[in-house]
Design brief:
This protein is mostly helical and 419 residues long. It has helices at residues 2-35, 39-53, 57-74, 81-106, 113-127, 137-171, 176-225, 229-232, 239-249, 252-289, 292-295, 300-323, 341-360, 389-393, 396-403, and strands at residues 365-372, 377-383. Strands 1-2 form a two-stranded antiparallel sheet. It starts with a helix and ends in a 16-residue tail after the last helix.
Length: 419
Protein backbone atom coordinates (compact mmCIF):
# COMPACT_ATOMS: atom_id res chain seq x y z
CA UNK A 1 0.00 0.00 0.00
CA UNK A 2 2.79 2.38 0.90
CA UNK A 3 4.58 1.68 -2.38
CA UNK A 4 1.41 2.39 -4.39
CA UNK A 5 0.92 5.70 -2.57
CA UNK A 6 4.51 6.69 -3.26
CA UNK A 7 4.09 5.86 -6.96
CA UNK A 8 0.85 7.89 -7.17
CA UNK A 9 2.47 10.94 -5.53
CA UNK A 10 5.45 10.69 -7.90
CA UNK A 11 3.09 10.51 -10.93
CA UNK A 12 1.18 13.55 -9.66
CA UNK A 13 4.44 15.51 -9.26
CA UNK A 14 5.53 14.62 -12.81
CA UNK A 15 2.11 15.60 -14.18
CA UNK A 16 2.26 18.96 -12.36
CA UNK A 17 5.71 19.59 -13.78
CA UNK A 18 4.50 18.68 -17.25
CA UNK A 19 1.51 21.00 -16.93
CA UNK A 20 3.79 23.96 -16.25
CA UNK A 21 5.98 22.93 -19.18
CA UNK A 22 2.91 22.78 -21.45
CA UNK A 23 1.77 26.19 -20.19
CA UNK A 24 5.22 27.62 -20.92
CA UNK A 25 5.27 26.02 -24.37
CA UNK A 26 1.84 27.45 -25.24
CA UNK A 27 2.90 30.93 -24.06
CA UNK A 28 6.00 30.62 -26.26
CA UNK A 29 3.85 29.73 -29.27
CA UNK A 30 1.52 32.68 -28.69
CA UNK A 31 4.47 35.04 -28.28
CA UNK A 32 6.16 33.85 -31.48
CA UNK A 33 2.90 34.14 -33.45
CA UNK A 34 2.43 37.75 -32.31
CA UNK A 35 6.05 38.73 -32.98
CA UNK A 36 6.31 37.19 -36.46
CA UNK A 37 3.91 37.73 -39.43
CA UNK A 38 1.79 34.56 -39.81
CA UNK A 39 -1.01 35.77 -42.10
CA UNK A 40 -4.64 35.94 -41.04
CA UNK A 41 -4.19 33.65 -38.02
CA UNK A 42 -1.33 35.77 -36.71
CA UNK A 43 -3.34 38.99 -37.16
CA UNK A 44 -6.30 37.54 -35.27
CA UNK A 45 -4.02 36.46 -32.41
CA UNK A 46 -2.55 39.97 -32.37
CA UNK A 47 -6.07 41.41 -32.20
CA UNK A 48 -6.80 39.08 -29.29
CA UNK A 49 -3.79 40.51 -27.44
CA UNK A 50 -4.78 44.02 -28.47
CA UNK A 51 -8.25 43.50 -27.04
CA UNK A 52 -6.74 43.26 -23.55
CA UNK A 53 -3.58 45.43 -23.68
CA UNK A 54 -4.03 47.51 -26.85
CA UNK A 55 -0.94 48.83 -28.60
CA UNK A 56 1.35 47.34 -25.94
CA UNK A 57 0.83 43.81 -27.24
CA UNK A 58 4.53 43.58 -28.16
CA UNK A 59 5.50 44.18 -24.52
CA UNK A 60 3.05 41.49 -23.42
CA UNK A 61 4.41 39.05 -26.02
CA UNK A 62 7.99 39.64 -24.80
CA UNK A 63 6.93 39.01 -21.19
CA UNK A 64 5.16 35.83 -22.25
CA UNK A 65 8.28 34.76 -24.13
CA UNK A 66 10.45 35.22 -21.02
CA UNK A 67 8.00 33.51 -18.66
CA UNK A 68 7.49 30.67 -21.16
CA UNK A 69 11.21 29.95 -21.31
CA UNK A 70 11.39 29.93 -17.51
CA UNK A 71 8.47 27.49 -17.20
CA UNK A 72 9.80 25.19 -19.91
CA UNK A 73 13.31 25.10 -18.43
CA UNK A 74 12.46 24.83 -14.70
CA UNK A 75 9.05 23.06 -14.98
CA UNK A 76 7.54 25.60 -12.58
CA UNK A 77 6.17 29.13 -12.68
CA UNK A 78 8.54 32.07 -12.11
CA UNK A 79 8.74 32.98 -8.42
CA UNK A 80 8.92 36.77 -8.37
CA UNK A 81 7.41 37.31 -4.98
CA UNK A 82 4.46 39.43 -4.01
CA UNK A 83 6.36 42.75 -4.04
CA UNK A 84 7.92 42.30 -7.49
CA UNK A 85 4.73 40.90 -9.00
CA UNK A 86 2.65 43.78 -7.70
CA UNK A 87 5.30 46.27 -8.89
CA UNK A 88 5.29 44.77 -12.39
CA UNK A 89 1.49 44.87 -12.54
CA UNK A 90 1.41 48.48 -11.27
CA UNK A 91 3.99 49.67 -13.82
CA UNK A 92 2.14 47.93 -16.66
CA UNK A 93 -1.21 49.39 -15.59
CA UNK A 94 0.31 52.88 -15.50
CA UNK A 95 1.63 52.33 -19.02
CA UNK A 96 -1.82 51.22 -20.24
CA UNK A 97 -3.48 54.28 -18.67
CA UNK A 98 -1.01 56.59 -20.45
CA UNK A 99 -1.66 54.84 -23.79
CA UNK A 100 -5.44 55.15 -23.39
CA UNK A 101 -5.16 58.82 -22.41
CA UNK A 102 -3.10 59.70 -25.46
CA UNK A 103 -5.32 57.65 -27.79
CA UNK A 104 -8.65 59.22 -26.76
CA UNK A 105 -7.06 62.66 -26.67
CA UNK A 106 -5.89 62.30 -30.27
CA UNK A 107 -9.28 61.20 -31.61
CA UNK A 108 -11.04 63.91 -29.51
CA UNK A 109 -13.31 61.55 -27.54
CA UNK A 110 -14.34 62.70 -24.06
CA UNK A 111 -17.08 60.23 -23.13
CA UNK A 112 -18.32 56.68 -23.83
CA UNK A 113 -14.76 55.39 -24.03
CA UNK A 114 -15.67 51.71 -23.68
CA UNK A 115 -18.25 51.86 -26.51
CA UNK A 116 -15.80 53.59 -28.86
CA UNK A 117 -13.12 51.01 -28.10
CA UNK A 118 -15.59 48.15 -28.62
CA UNK A 119 -16.52 49.46 -32.09
CA UNK A 120 -12.87 49.81 -33.09
CA UNK A 121 -11.84 46.33 -31.95
CA UNK A 122 -14.88 44.66 -33.58
CA UNK A 123 -14.02 46.36 -36.88
CA UNK A 124 -10.44 45.10 -36.58
CA UNK A 125 -11.63 41.51 -35.96
CA UNK A 126 -14.03 41.77 -38.91
CA UNK A 127 -11.35 43.02 -41.29
CA UNK A 128 -8.67 40.70 -39.98
CA UNK A 129 -6.16 43.55 -39.80
CA UNK A 130 -4.12 45.19 -37.06
CA UNK A 131 -3.63 48.67 -38.52
CA UNK A 132 -5.78 51.01 -36.40
CA UNK A 133 -4.35 52.12 -32.99
CA UNK A 134 -6.33 51.05 -29.93
CA UNK A 135 -4.57 52.78 -27.03
CA UNK A 136 -4.30 50.73 -23.84
CA UNK A 137 -6.84 48.05 -24.72
CA UNK A 138 -9.91 47.17 -22.72
CA UNK A 139 -7.98 47.23 -19.42
CA UNK A 140 -6.63 50.74 -19.95
CA UNK A 141 -10.00 51.95 -21.30
CA UNK A 142 -11.87 50.75 -18.20
CA UNK A 143 -9.41 52.51 -15.89
CA UNK A 144 -9.56 55.66 -18.04
CA UNK A 145 -13.39 55.57 -18.01
CA UNK A 146 -13.26 55.64 -14.21
CA UNK A 147 -10.41 58.18 -13.79
CA UNK A 148 -11.21 60.75 -16.48
CA UNK A 149 -14.25 62.34 -14.73
CA UNK A 150 -12.22 62.61 -11.50
CA UNK A 151 -8.80 63.91 -12.55
CA UNK A 152 -9.13 64.63 -16.34
CA UNK A 153 -6.57 63.64 -18.98
CA UNK A 154 -3.66 65.51 -17.40
CA UNK A 155 -4.24 63.84 -14.07
CA UNK A 156 -4.33 60.43 -15.77
CA UNK A 157 -0.95 61.10 -17.37
CA UNK A 158 0.56 62.14 -14.04
CA UNK A 159 -0.97 59.16 -12.22
CA UNK A 160 0.27 56.74 -14.86
CA UNK A 161 3.80 58.19 -14.66
CA UNK A 162 3.86 57.83 -10.87
CA UNK A 163 2.53 54.27 -11.14
CA UNK A 164 5.36 53.35 -13.55
CA UNK A 165 8.01 54.86 -11.25
CA UNK A 166 6.65 53.15 -8.12
CA UNK A 167 6.24 49.84 -9.94
CA UNK A 168 9.85 49.91 -11.19
CA UNK A 169 11.10 50.65 -7.67
CA UNK A 170 9.06 47.78 -6.27
CA UNK A 171 10.15 45.35 -8.97
CA UNK A 172 13.87 46.05 -8.43
CA UNK A 173 13.39 46.13 -4.65
CA UNK A 174 14.68 49.67 -4.31
CA UNK A 175 13.81 51.64 -1.19
CA UNK A 176 12.81 55.26 -1.27
CA UNK A 177 15.66 56.18 1.06
CA UNK A 178 18.22 54.66 -1.29
CA UNK A 179 16.77 56.48 -4.27
CA UNK A 180 16.64 59.78 -2.35
CA UNK A 181 20.21 59.44 -1.09
CA UNK A 182 21.44 58.58 -4.58
CA UNK A 183 19.60 61.57 -6.01
CA UNK A 184 21.12 63.85 -3.36
CA UNK A 185 24.64 62.57 -4.03
CA UNK A 186 24.24 62.97 -7.76
CA UNK A 187 22.81 66.48 -7.44
CA UNK A 188 25.63 67.57 -5.10
CA UNK A 189 28.26 66.14 -7.42
CA UNK A 190 26.60 67.85 -10.39
CA UNK A 191 26.45 71.20 -8.58
CA UNK A 192 30.13 70.95 -7.54
CA UNK A 193 31.18 70.19 -11.10
CA UNK A 194 29.10 73.06 -12.39
CA UNK A 195 30.68 75.46 -9.86
CA UNK A 196 34.14 74.65 -11.15
CA UNK A 197 32.92 74.92 -14.70
CA UNK A 198 31.25 78.26 -13.94
CA UNK A 199 34.51 79.60 -12.56
CA UNK A 200 36.36 78.58 -15.68
CA UNK A 201 33.66 80.13 -17.84
CA UNK A 202 33.81 83.38 -15.85
CA UNK A 203 37.58 83.53 -16.25
CA UNK A 204 37.34 82.98 -19.99
CA UNK A 205 34.62 85.60 -20.25
CA UNK A 206 36.77 88.10 -18.33
CA UNK A 207 39.73 87.37 -20.62
CA UNK A 208 37.52 88.01 -23.63
CA UNK A 209 36.36 91.34 -22.21
CA UNK A 210 39.96 92.39 -21.47
CA UNK A 211 40.98 91.49 -25.01
CA UNK A 212 38.12 93.52 -26.47
CA UNK A 213 39.09 96.54 -24.32
CA UNK A 214 42.71 96.31 -25.46
CA UNK A 215 41.62 96.15 -29.10
CA UNK A 216 39.39 99.19 -28.68
CA UNK A 217 42.26 101.12 -27.02
CA UNK A 218 44.60 100.22 -29.90
CA UNK A 219 42.04 101.38 -32.42
CA UNK A 220 41.65 104.70 -30.58
CA UNK A 221 45.45 105.23 -30.60
CA UNK A 222 45.65 104.45 -34.31
CA UNK A 223 42.93 106.98 -35.02
CA UNK A 224 44.77 109.65 -33.05
CA UNK A 225 47.97 108.97 -34.99
CA UNK A 226 46.24 109.51 -38.33
CA UNK A 227 46.97 112.93 -39.96
CA UNK A 228 44.72 114.99 -42.19
CA UNK A 229 46.34 115.41 -45.65
CA UNK A 230 44.66 118.82 -46.10
CA UNK A 231 46.43 120.21 -43.06
CA UNK A 232 49.93 119.41 -44.43
CA UNK A 233 49.24 120.94 -47.91
CA UNK A 234 49.99 124.53 -48.93
CA UNK A 235 47.73 127.29 -47.72
CA UNK A 236 45.17 128.45 -50.25
CA UNK A 237 44.63 132.21 -50.67
CA UNK A 238 41.59 133.66 -49.00
CA UNK A 239 38.85 135.11 -51.20
CA UNK A 240 38.42 138.04 -48.83
CA UNK A 241 41.88 139.31 -49.85
CA UNK A 242 40.75 139.54 -53.46
CA UNK A 243 37.57 141.31 -52.47
CA UNK A 244 39.43 143.84 -50.32
CA UNK A 245 42.01 144.55 -53.05
CA UNK A 246 39.25 145.09 -55.63
CA UNK A 247 37.46 147.54 -53.40
CA UNK A 248 40.66 149.52 -52.82
CA UNK A 249 41.69 149.80 -56.50
CA UNK A 250 38.37 151.19 -57.79
CA UNK A 251 37.46 154.63 -56.42
CA UNK A 252 33.91 155.57 -55.42
CA UNK A 253 33.33 157.98 -58.31
CA UNK A 254 34.33 155.36 -60.88
CA UNK A 255 31.93 152.88 -59.28
CA UNK A 256 29.05 155.24 -59.62
CA UNK A 257 30.02 155.95 -63.19
CA UNK A 258 30.22 152.30 -64.08
CA UNK A 259 26.76 151.67 -62.65
CA UNK A 260 25.21 154.43 -64.81
CA UNK A 261 26.97 153.03 -67.86
CA UNK A 262 25.49 149.60 -67.10
CA UNK A 263 21.99 151.04 -66.93
CA UNK A 264 22.42 152.79 -70.31
CA UNK A 265 23.76 149.62 -71.93
CA UNK A 266 20.81 147.61 -70.60
CA UNK A 267 18.34 150.10 -72.05
CA UNK A 268 20.07 150.01 -75.44
CA UNK A 269 19.97 146.18 -75.55
CA UNK A 270 16.26 146.21 -74.69
CA UNK A 271 15.53 148.59 -77.56
CA UNK A 272 17.52 146.39 -79.97
CA UNK A 273 15.60 143.30 -78.87
CA UNK A 274 12.28 145.03 -79.45
CA UNK A 275 13.37 146.05 -82.98
CA UNK A 276 14.45 142.49 -83.77
CA UNK A 277 11.13 141.06 -82.55
CA UNK A 278 9.18 143.55 -84.69
CA UNK A 279 11.22 142.69 -87.79
CA UNK A 280 10.67 138.94 -87.22
CA UNK A 281 6.92 139.46 -86.87
CA UNK A 282 6.77 141.37 -90.13
CA UNK A 283 8.78 138.69 -91.95
CA UNK A 284 6.51 135.97 -90.60
CA UNK A 285 3.48 137.84 -91.83
CA UNK A 286 5.02 138.01 -95.28
CA UNK A 287 5.73 134.30 -95.33
CA UNK A 288 2.20 133.40 -94.24
CA UNK A 289 0.66 135.53 -96.94
CA UNK A 290 2.64 133.74 -99.67
CA UNK A 291 1.11 130.72 -101.43
CA UNK A 292 1.95 127.25 -100.09
CA UNK A 293 3.35 125.80 -103.29
CA UNK A 294 6.31 128.16 -103.13
CA UNK A 295 7.25 127.14 -99.57
CA UNK A 296 6.89 123.36 -100.14
CA UNK A 297 10.15 122.74 -102.05
CA UNK A 298 12.15 123.84 -99.05
CA UNK A 299 11.20 120.64 -97.17
CA UNK A 300 11.74 118.13 -100.00
CA UNK A 301 15.52 117.72 -99.48
CA UNK A 302 14.93 116.80 -95.88
CA UNK A 303 12.57 113.99 -96.82
CA UNK A 304 15.08 112.70 -99.35
CA UNK A 305 17.81 112.70 -96.74
CA UNK A 306 15.56 110.82 -94.34
CA UNK A 307 14.77 108.26 -96.99
CA UNK A 308 18.43 107.82 -97.84
CA UNK A 309 19.38 107.38 -94.17
CA UNK A 310 16.73 104.75 -93.41
CA UNK A 311 18.55 101.76 -95.01
CA UNK A 312 21.66 102.54 -92.99
CA UNK A 313 19.70 102.20 -89.74
CA UNK A 314 18.13 98.95 -90.89
CA UNK A 315 21.47 97.48 -91.84
CA UNK A 316 22.92 98.51 -88.49
CA UNK A 317 20.12 96.71 -86.58
CA UNK A 318 20.64 93.52 -88.65
CA UNK A 319 24.36 93.47 -87.91
CA UNK A 320 23.80 93.99 -84.18
CA UNK A 321 21.24 91.14 -84.04
CA UNK A 322 23.64 88.79 -85.83
CA UNK A 323 26.50 89.60 -83.43
CA UNK A 324 24.30 89.00 -80.32
CA UNK A 325 25.09 85.80 -78.41
CA UNK A 326 22.73 83.98 -76.05
CA UNK A 327 23.86 83.65 -72.38
CA UNK A 328 25.24 80.22 -71.38
CA UNK A 329 23.19 77.64 -69.42
CA UNK A 330 25.83 77.61 -66.68
CA UNK A 331 24.23 80.75 -65.25
CA UNK A 332 21.25 78.68 -64.10
CA UNK A 333 21.51 77.01 -60.69
CA UNK A 334 20.96 73.22 -60.69
CA UNK A 335 17.79 71.83 -59.12
CA UNK A 336 18.10 70.02 -55.78
CA UNK A 337 17.03 66.41 -55.59
CA UNK A 338 14.50 65.62 -52.85
CA UNK A 339 14.57 62.36 -50.90
CA UNK A 340 11.20 60.61 -51.33
CA UNK A 341 12.23 57.16 -50.10
CA UNK A 342 10.02 57.35 -47.00
CA UNK A 343 7.04 58.43 -49.09
CA UNK A 344 7.62 55.52 -51.47
CA UNK A 345 7.72 53.07 -48.56
CA UNK A 346 4.50 54.50 -47.14
CA UNK A 347 2.83 54.18 -50.55
CA UNK A 348 3.85 50.51 -50.81
CA UNK A 349 2.50 49.87 -47.33
CA UNK A 350 -0.79 51.62 -48.13
CA UNK A 351 -1.14 49.57 -51.33
CA UNK A 352 -0.87 46.38 -49.29
CA UNK A 353 -3.37 47.71 -46.74
CA UNK A 354 -5.84 48.57 -49.51
CA UNK A 355 -5.58 45.13 -51.07
CA UNK A 356 -6.02 43.42 -47.68
CA UNK A 357 -9.00 45.58 -46.80
CA UNK A 358 -10.75 44.89 -50.10
CA UNK A 359 -10.00 41.19 -49.72
CA UNK A 360 -11.47 41.12 -46.20
CA UNK A 361 -14.77 42.45 -47.62
CA UNK A 362 -14.78 39.95 -50.49
CA UNK A 363 -13.91 42.48 -53.21
CA UNK A 364 -11.18 41.33 -55.60
CA UNK A 365 -9.13 44.29 -56.85
CA UNK A 366 -5.58 45.08 -57.92
CA UNK A 367 -3.89 48.34 -56.92
CA UNK A 368 -2.12 49.17 -60.17
CA UNK A 369 -0.36 52.49 -59.64
CA UNK A 370 0.04 55.20 -57.02
CA UNK A 371 0.73 58.83 -57.92
CA UNK A 372 2.37 60.95 -55.23
CA UNK A 373 1.23 64.57 -55.20
CA UNK A 374 2.08 67.58 -53.01
CA UNK A 375 -1.04 67.19 -50.85
CA UNK A 376 -3.00 64.19 -52.19
CA UNK A 377 -1.79 60.69 -53.09
CA UNK A 378 -3.87 58.97 -55.79
CA UNK A 379 -4.22 55.18 -56.00
CA UNK A 380 -5.61 53.56 -59.15
CA UNK A 381 -7.55 50.37 -58.39
CA UNK A 382 -8.59 47.85 -61.06
CA UNK A 383 -11.55 45.66 -60.00
CA UNK A 384 -11.82 42.08 -61.15
CA UNK A 385 -14.36 40.96 -63.71
CA UNK A 386 -17.84 40.86 -62.20
CA UNK A 387 -17.12 43.28 -59.33
CA UNK A 388 -19.57 46.16 -59.18
CA UNK A 389 -18.22 49.68 -58.83
CA UNK A 390 -20.86 50.46 -56.20
CA UNK A 391 -19.29 47.91 -53.85
CA UNK A 392 -16.00 49.83 -53.99
CA UNK A 393 -17.70 53.19 -53.48
CA UNK A 394 -19.61 51.90 -50.43
CA UNK A 395 -16.32 51.05 -48.68
CA UNK A 396 -15.19 54.69 -48.38
CA UNK A 397 -15.39 54.89 -44.60
CA UNK A 398 -13.81 51.48 -44.08
CA UNK A 399 -10.89 52.36 -46.35
CA UNK A 400 -10.34 55.65 -44.55
CA UNK A 401 -10.30 53.77 -41.23
CA UNK A 402 -7.83 51.20 -42.55
CA UNK A 403 -5.51 53.87 -43.94
CA UNK A 404 -5.89 56.02 -40.79
CA UNK A 405 -6.77 58.93 -43.09
CA UNK A 406 -9.02 61.83 -42.24
CA UNK A 407 -10.95 61.64 -45.50
CA UNK A 408 -10.69 59.88 -48.84
CA UNK A 409 -12.51 60.48 -52.15
CA UNK A 410 -13.29 57.73 -54.63
CA UNK A 411 -13.76 58.60 -58.31
CA UNK A 412 -15.35 55.65 -60.08
CA UNK A 413 -15.06 55.05 -62.92
CA UNK A 414 -12.02 57.05 -64.06
CA UNK A 415 -12.98 58.99 -67.21
CA UNK A 416 -11.01 57.96 -70.27
CA UNK A 417 -9.70 54.68 -68.75
CA UNK A 418 -11.32 51.25 -69.28
CA UNK A 419 -11.07 48.28 -66.93
Amino acid sequence: MTKRKKRQTAKKKKQSRLTWAFVGLSSLIFAVVTLLPFGLLGRQVINLFRFFVGDSYLVMSVLLLIFGFVMVIYNQPPHLGFKRTSGLIMAYLGFLIILSTRYFDQILIHQNFVNVFWQQITNEFARGNATVPLGGGMIGTIFYQFLFPLISALGCLILGSFAIIIGVLMFFNLKFRQVLSGFQKFSRFFIAKNQNASRVVKQKYGDLLDGQKERQAKKALNREKLEDPLESSQDFPDTQDFASSATHTIPVEEKAFSETEKDDSIKETDQEDENDIASQMSSEKMVLDEPRHEAMPEHEPDTEKAAVGAPELASGSDSSSKSYQLPPLSLLSPTRETDQSQDRRLIQKNKQVLEKTFKSFGVKVIVKTAILGPTVTRYEVQPAVGVKVSRIVNLTDDLALALAAKDIRIEAPIPGKPL
